[in-house]
Amino acid sequence: IQKNTLEIISNTSKFVQVKQLHCEPHLFLNKLITLLNSENTEDLESAVESLRHLIVFQENEVILEELLNNCLEDLNKLLISPSIEVREGVLELFCFLSDLKMSTRVAIARQPKCVMRLIALLSSGVGKKNDKITKLCALILSNVSLAPASKSYLLPYERDLFIVAATDECVSKIICNVLGDLDNLGAEPSFKH
After folding, report:
1. What is the 3-state secondary structure of 39-65?
2. What is the pLDDT of residues 67-83, one digit of tens each?
3. Is 17 helix (H, G, I), strand (E, B) or coil?
4. Residue 21: enclosing H or E segment and its boundaries?
5. What is the pLDDT of residues 41-68, one digit of tens each?
6. How far apart are CA 18 and CA 120, in angstroms?
7. 189: left (phi > 0), else alpha (psi -120 to 50), else beta?
8. Which residues contact 28 (CB under 8 A, 6 or more apart)?
């Protein structure tokens, strides 16, 4: 029953405004968030897909930001999921979150190994034209770099960002902006030009 229910929710969630649900919205969303730790790949994929679809409505923004901020650790762990669908969905959720408040951007950067994982995913797509994962990682890093308090989390990867900017024309401009943000924040470059 849970599998069928999740499949229905996953397919219809793009039409759902959370506040208009006849049940308590937090209960519904907390159940989806609980499934982010599921061992069952299908349940996990459905939960991520449902959350990803819910970000479509601007009316869902406030409640989703609050709840997703509380599960950043779970989302961070899913960046290394063997399922491409899960990784893409999680990156879309991170992209959504990183485009909101400065405090959320800093919270993303503070997640242990999150920046490292984003840069690894970014680097893995170098040279692949129109790679969705690469573009999402570049956008997330760009959004995160706008928060001055995130600087210290990005600086150790400045060289990696430079290499990606120099070798991947699809995301070069975005990554150059990230490097510029780091430089504009008064950061000393960790490599010589």
Report:
1. CCHHHHHHHHHHHHHHCCCHHHHHHHH
2. 888 899 999 999 999 99
3. coil
4. none
5. 999 999 999 999 998 888 888 888 888 8
6. 34
7. beta
8. 18, 21
Query: Cα–Cα distance between 174 and 11 in angstroms, integer?
Result: 32
If phi > 0 it is left, if psi is from -120 to 50 it is alpha, else beta; for residue 111 that is beta
**Predicted local confidence at residue 109, as pLDDT:** 96
User: Is residue 127 left, alpha or beta, with left meaning phi > 0 and alpha meaning psi from -120 to 50?
Assistant: left
Q: Please list the alpha-helical segments (H only) found in 79-155.
A: 84-98, 102-110, 114-124, 132-145, 151-154
Counting every residue written for the chain, the total comes to 193
Q: What pLDDT does residue 68 have? A: 85
Q: Taking Cα atoms as reference points, which of 123, 33, 118 lies closest to residue 76?
A: 118
> What's the number of CA atoms in the CB half-sphere (13 Å) around residue 25?
17
Determine the Cα–Cα distance for residues 182 and 43; give it in Å rounded to an integer. 39
Q: For residues 16 and 39, what is the distance between their CA atoms, to the nearest angstrom? A: 26
Residue 70 · residue 36 · CB < 8 Å: no
Helix crossing, 158-167 with 172-184: angle to 10°? 150
Q: Please tell me the distance from the alpha carbon of residue 78 to that of residue 136, in angstroms, as a whole number.
A: 15
